[in-house]
Amino acid sequence: MAQVHVMDHPLILHKLSLMRDRQTGAKEFREAAREIAMLMCYEATRDLPLKEISLETPLAHTRARVITGKKIAFVPVMRTGLGMVEGMLELIPAAKVGHIGLFRDPETMQAVEYYCKLPVDIAERDVIIIDPMIATGASASAAVNSLKERGVRHIKLLCLLMTEQAVELLQREHPDVEIFTAAIDPALDENGFILPGMGDAGDRLFGTR
For 41, which of 26, 76, 88, 108 could close a Cys bridge (C-beta 3.0–4.6 Å)? Predict the structure, then answer.
């Protein structure tokens, strides 16, 4: 089974509550999304390998540890994933960024890919998929499939909210993908939206309807 990490850091939970609040405007919503993404990226990259090097401080010679140069890529699922990329890039500015566009067929509820643009060396990179709200899990699973078809072997999935249904689907279809989420909500409404959720994240990020 895929590991599922539910973030319980007070700052993440506080900012997630701000995003859930219907009174929060687009500016504050975007800021909270960026800040949570940075905090969650910190946790999702805890296993990055290190190597020891020699260096000179202003006062003395010492040994220190640095990241071994592992290649990382962030792949937001459009459009809502775009609201979290900036925060993650502030933490790891050398990461490459790809994009996957998916929409959910309103009748079948299945994900349909309409756009995919990835770094040319994507198969050599550790990839973190960014999909802020995972309702049924179908779109996230489709994004993982798209990357696996292009040779990616190490994938993590980072989201703000997901449902128990999505957890079950992803663990069944992609048991090798590690999942990081700020919360797991219990249900979907009749239109496939997460309850209690935070509404339409894309509309709230970009001020659209």
Answer: 88
Residue 178 belongs to domain spanning: 4-206
Tens-place pLDDT, residues 6-28: 999 999 999 999 999 999 999 99
Q: Kindly report the CATH number assigned to the domain that includes residue 34.
A: 3.40.50.2020
Of 192, 136, 199, nearest to 162 by C-alpha is: 136
Q: pTM of this prediction?
A: 0.91
Predicted confidence (pLDDT) per residue in 132-163, tens digit: 999 989 899 999 999 999 999 999 999 999 99
Distances (CA, A) of 87 to 39, 66, 111, 158, 172: 8, 21, 26, 13, 30
The CA dihedral of 34, 35, 40, 41, to the nearest 10 degrees, is: 60
